[in-house]
Amino acid sequence: MRKTIAIIFAGAQAEEMSVLTFWRPKSAVIFGGAYRMIDFALTNLAVTAGIDYVGILSQYRPSSLIDHVGIGLPWDFVGNQRGVRFLPPHLGPDHADWYRGTADALHQNVDFLKLHAPDDVLIVSGDHAYSMDYGPFLRFHLERDADVTLAFTPIEHNPSRFGIGELNAEGRVMSYREKPKAPRSNLASMTVYVFKRQVLIEELGRFAALGPEERRSYHIYDEILPHMMEHRRAFGWIHRGPWEYARTLDSYHQAHQDMLGPAPRLDLAGWHVRTNPHMRRAAVPPPTRHGAAAEVVESVVSMGCEIDGHVERSVLSPDVRIARGAEVRNSVLWDKVVVEEGAVLDGVICDKRCIVRRGARIGVGDSAPPNADLPGALTCGAAVLGMDVEVPPGAEIGRNCIVYPKLGPAEITGAVPSGTTVKPPGIQS
Question: What are phi and psi of 263, to 5 degrees?
């Protein structure tokens, strides 16, 4: 029987996600109220026959990700021949560098590939949200006797944001360009690849032998894939179904709006996503409690919430508290956020444990300029609060604003104009 192991790229800081990735990689960002981004890749792998072992390439602030994944029990990666292993940069006789890119990270872990000796290596990104059975993808790879097979998905709007491929009738990759200005197709790379193991090892060896003047970058899409498309058997497989990259704050906010309503574009309930509900807990949260004055309209509410106010078109993580007389609209609130009496949130993304005091208003104004620090990533009107922010009573924060983690009444004074960023003293733009 053909043996396949999987490698997950855990992702880095993701500048376009700003304060949401200050303390965690993008793969550990909360998505859909109850999940982390990496849950989607792990769930997809768990339901795919033949994937027994997973390596996770992690580097940037991995603590919360390691706590969340643990030994892989929620995804059934536990047993004598099953497991999840984190593969951080390491000191050794030959390697003492941080990962400089995806190709470099794989090259530093060639011994891991040799140890497990699979026939094929399935590589997936841990910071995308989608539901996919990798079984048909792997069979396609085997039937074509491919050296590498890439998964693509059709993109309706602005495909130039992604790596774009062109396929012939057989499925052979005829061209691939990363973020082309004038894309010749709408087939976007999902950052899901399957390689013949020996071919991948050979290609990584060729990459490592390149001199500085020959190397374009340290990434797969620059150094490994273009060469394989010219010299190896490279094929493309098309996935048809929802796929959410959520690369920017704008797209992250919109993805959560797409989960709502009678016919949501992203129906996570139908994906049967597995997660770790016991992270830092002895038991799962209690059921959500709605008070006598509570109103909840077209929203996703996780367990453990206490709602006495008005919630509309919003996604709430566990243990959120909305006081009587408070209003929350078009927002995404992470674990343990507290919204006190009379506060109003309209289009807000709150990291964990934020407190919005009495009468504060966030998301003020009908229109706003893009955020001055991230003009290409925050334009939708959402205000974004980092972890452990305390908004003082009666404060006003406009739209397209960013508030750095752990700031409070000493830094949030007066009205915060739309499009601005509140930072700790001493940090320059």
Answer: -135, 75
The token duo for 33 is 């109220």
- Summarised one tens digit per residue, pLDDT across range 133-171 is 999 999 999 999 999 999 999 998 888 888 899 999 999
Residue type at position 11: G
Predicted confidence at residue 314, as pLDDT, reads: 98
Give me the phi and psi of 188, to 5 degrees please.
-95, 140
Q: 221: closest CA among 138, 137, 104, 112?
A: 104
Dihedral pair phi/psi, residue 306, rounded to 5°: -125, 115
CB atoms within 10 A of CB 261: 10
CA-closest candidate to residue 66, choices 83, 46, 86, 47: 86
CATH of 285-422, one of 1.10.10.10, 3.40.50.20, 2.60.40.2470, 2.160.10.10: 2.160.10.10
Q: How does DSSP assign 235-253, residue by residue?
A: EEEE--S-EE---SHHHHH
Q: How far apart are CA 8 and CA 66, in angstroms?
A: 13
Least Cα distance to 41 among 79, 78, 11, 67 occurs for: 11
Extents of the domains making up the chain: 4-249, 285-422
Residue 58 and residue 411: Cα distance in Å, rounded? 34
Distance CA 412, CA 426 (A): 15
Which numeric CATH code is attached to 4-249?
3.90.550.10
| Nearest partner of 352 among 330, 321, 324, 385, judged by Cα | 385
Q: Quick one: DSSP state of residue 73? A: G
For residue 95 the two structure tokens come to 């390697």
Contact 105, 62 (CB under 8 A): no
Q: Which parts of the chain have pLDDT scores under 50?
A: none
